[in-house]
Amino acid sequence: MHLNIDSDHNRFKEIIRGKIKEDFKKYITKGEMVGKRGKNLVSIPVPSIDIPKFRLDYRKQKGVGQGEGEVGTTLGPGDDQGGSSGAGNSPGRHILEVDVSLDELADMLGEELELPHIQPKGRKNIVAEKDKYTGIRQTGPESLRHFKRTYRSAMRRQIMTGNYNYEDPRIIPFREDKRYRSWKAKSNPESNAVIIYIMDVSGSMGEEQKEIVRIESFWIDTWLRKQYDGIESRYIIHDSRAKEVDEHTFYHTRESGGTMISSAYNICDQLLEREYPAEEWNIYVFHFSDGDNWEAEDTVKCLAMLDSSILPKANLFCYGQVESLYGSGDFIEALDGKFHEDNRLVTCEIPDKEGIYDSIKAFLGKGK
C-alpha cells in the first residue's frame, strides 16, 4: 500500500512539472513567484490541474439521466435553473500552489531556453573537505555505532552458541559484537563565482523597470547557482554617483537625478581588484539601465574602463537596456560599436516584461 501511495505521489509530481513546463515562458516573465522564494524552494501557482475521477459505465448500469423524464426536468430541489449573481456556499476552483526546488527550476530554464552548461575557466578552486562513510569496523566512538549491524552480530553469536530463545528473543550485545561506521575525508573542488549586479536608479528608471530587473536577476541567479558550488552576489546602484548596497536596498531604492555610469564601473572595478582576483574567481557582471548617460565624455570613459580593466577579468559582462517611460539613451549603441566582436560582452534591449525571456537567452546562451 505504501509503495502505491509513493507511486501515485510521484505521478502527481510529474503532472505538476509537466504543467509548469507547459507554461514556463509565462512563469519566466511574471514576478509573482519571485516574491514567494524561500531558501531552496519557490512556491509556484499552478491553475487548471485536472484530477482523475471515477465515471459510471452506463452500458452496465443506469445512472443519472438514464431513466424516465423529459428534457429540462429538474433533477434536484428548487425551481431556479439558471445561475445566481449572489454569494454561494459551494467551493470554487482554486489555484494550486506547489513548491519547486531552485535546482528543478534551473533545469527547466535550461531546457526551455536550450542553455548550454557553463564550463568554468581554468582558475583556482575552493577545496572543501567532506567526511564520507566508507565501511564498518569493530572499533570507534559510540556516536558512530551501527545499531543494526551490532544487533545482527549479537544475534548471530547467540544462535551459534545456542543461547538464542525463539520464544523469548532477547539480544544482548557484548563488546565484541559492536560495529562502528568508518569514514575518510574526501576533497571536493568547488568552483568560485561572483555575480555583480549593477542598476541605474536615476529618475528615469521607474518601478516597472526595476521589476523587470528583479525578475531577470532571479532567473540569472537561479541558473548560475546551478552551475557553481560556491557563489557570491554583490549589488551596486548608481545615478550620478554609485555605491554598493545590500540586496534589499538594491531592489527598493528610489532615487532621482542624472546618470553617470562610470561611477558604477569604477566601484565594480575596485571591488574585483580588492576581493575577487581573476585568477581565483569566475566573474559575472550584469548592468541594467535605460541607457541615458549624462554626457558623451562619460560614455567614452566607460568604454575605456571596460576595455582595459573589467572585461579582462570577467567571464561575461551583460548589459540590459530597459526601456524607460521617457525613452532610452544610446549607451547600448556605444557598447555594440566598440565591442561588437568581443564575446565577453553581451547586450540586449528589454522593452518590457515580455522581453525578459529573450534577454535571458541572450545573456546565458553563450555558456561562458
What features would you describe in this structure?
With 368 residues, the protein is of the alpha/beta class. It folds into 3 domains: 1-49 and 95-114, no CATH class; 131-187, no CATH class; 191-364, Rossmann fold, CATH 3.40.50. Helices cover 36% and strands 21% of the residues. A 6-stranded mixed sheet has the order 7-6-5-8-9-10, with helices on both faces. The protein has a two-stranded antiparallel sheet with strand order 1-2. α8 (296-313) links the parallel β8 and β9. α3 (102-113) packs across α5 and α5 runs parallel beside α10 (356-364).
Major β-sheet profile: 6 strands, mixed
What percent of residues adopt helix (DSSP H or I)?
Answer: 25-40%
Strand order of the largest sheet: 7-6-5-8-9-10
Provide the low-confidence segments as ranges: 79-84, 90-94
What's the shape?
A: elongated
What average pLDDT do the residues reach?
Answer: 78
- Determine the number of helices (DSSP H or I, runs of at least 4 residues): 10
How many strand units? Answer: 10
Alpha carbon gyration radius: 31 Å
CATH level-3 fold name of the largest domain: Rossmann fold
Regarding CATH, which class of the largest domain? Alpha Beta
Report the end-to-end length measured between terminal Cα atoms: 48 Å
